[in-house]
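Forum > Structural Biology > Help requests

Title: Can anyone predict the 3D structure of Alpha/beta hydrolase?

Hi all, first post here. I have the sequence for Alpha/beta hydrolase but no way to get a structure on my laptop. I'd be grateful if someone could post the structure tokens.
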Amino acid sequence: MPYLTVHDTRLYYEDAGTGKPVLFLHGWGTSGRVWGAQLPEFAAEHRVVVPDWRGCGRSDHPATSNDVDGVVTDLIALIGALDLDRPVVVGSSVGGVFGTELALRRPDLVGGVVAVDSPGYWPAQGMDLPAIMSAIRGDRAGFATAWVANWYAPGTSPALVDWTVRQILDSSTFADDQFAQFRTYDPRPSLPGLRVPIHYLHGELDAEIPVAVAEDCAARTPGATVTVIPGSGHLPHQERPAEFNAALRAVLGRLRTTV
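Reply #1:
Sure, ran it for you. Structure tokens for Alpha/beta hydrolase below:
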């Protein structure tokens, strides 16, 4: 199994295909497995790299550096170690925050960003992060079960919801430290200075980060646009994989002509 040790932490990753690289980043508490409908599809034309970031999935679960800075630092090391030539970073939810911050800090390393139902500015959206943090500590399993059901659009397979919950319960509790950081996180002041092309791909029915958030971010970001996936909630790559893949393929095609 492919592992890469960065900053004393073993990171699991999958690496398939050849061509312009695409780096897929999962959201909080899950793993690279959420991109199962994308890896084989895009590996036919691209080099596709799908890591489990620290604290999640098959990667190590250290007690340190689980915040945005730590994960972005890991990504910088991973890009260098795997010799990825300015990959397009496709990040879901918190993964989109990592991709956006990576592009803001190291635009020389990134060919483009596709923020999937991300990035959020949670307190300004009215999300009560202290209450979420307290609920997770008090009853992690119960809270995750109730919360994750709200991520998906009505009618989503219960098996998909249950599988997502199981991934979260298998992840490190130290990854929950990100919620403390997100109490003050707001990317909007930095977006006008973003020097990397970014596109916002968003589920129409996302109840966690509404489409209006993506539209707000895009309006502040030079050249940014938004694509809405009809009928999808917070995780369109899992809920509507065919529609998502078609939209992502179109975005990657546009990025090839601008980068």
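The first strand starts at residue 3 and ends at 6. Strands lie at 3-6, 9-16, 21-25, 47-51, 88-92, 112-116, 198-203, 225-229.
Shout if anything looks off.
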